Amino acid sequence: MITTNLANFVTDFFINYLSNVRNSSPHTAIAYRDTIKLLLQHAAKFHQRSLERLQIEDLSASAILEFLSQLESERGNSIRTRNARLAAIHSFFRYVLSREPVLASLCHCVLAIPFKKAPKPTLGYLSGEETKHLLDQIDRSTLHGERDYLIFALLYDTGARVQELLELKPIHFHLKSPAFVRIMGKGRKERLCPLLPQTARLVAQYITTQKQTPYDESPIFKNRISQQLSRHGVRYLLKKYLNMASVAMPSLARQSISPHTLRHAKAMHLLQSGVPLITIKDILGHADIKSTEVYMQADMQMKRKALQQVGTPSRWRPDRTLKMSPDLITWLESL
Q: Does domain 128-310 have CATH number 2.40.50.100?
């Protein structure tokens, strides 16, 4: 048992602050829980004392900086993971500061720890031909094949994040024309995504096959033991079909393809079709247009690369054989 001081802060942070004050999602609470657990274990080792003897003051800026460093060096975490852990720690100490102003000095030192700048990965997405070829690998004559096809069709059609998709229930779908699906995104932000008529028909057929009703509140996508399919399960399925698809289309053998790549693909295809950026932002559920602008930048880079590969026949190149004339005007006219 941790000392009452620290234990009260930690328990109240999760039970009251995150749940009642912030109304954070269960996924946020779990991520924060894992961070605080790792931090407490590190602090006990850092100060060479048991967890039972830890005080809130033991979670100093120096101890946290050492913790963040070990995340990268010992656990092999990426800079993005390190920054996510730090965001959870910042949230905890903002709560501590609001509750106990006497700890302001400790809190401000921790809150001053900066996020690391991480290299931005190249935006990966599938072309229309690659997306179609991937879906063509799925054997839809079986129940599991029909499930798999619907998973990837919906990921592309809606541009949803994989966790958003896995939490969908029949009640979230409106399958009469115009069809749409209600998706709960990050920060509990709800959005409505239109569905293509053929996708709506697939959803309706699958719900019927699963013996669910349109008002059912259990997850649509389940594994072989009738539990909600996990993100790891979707990644496994994608890898299986990518291995099949890459035989005839080697470009699909690249390592960077993930379920999120289908979200990128949808955004890029919408942009290339002339859909306004603000509309794409709403479809993807981005809180800020800056998050969506990355697709426009990637599209510009793709166009620039294409132009460089084609070249410009009329591009001017100086004749290296020309010699400088004493008359500068004459020399310029000779170019």
A: no
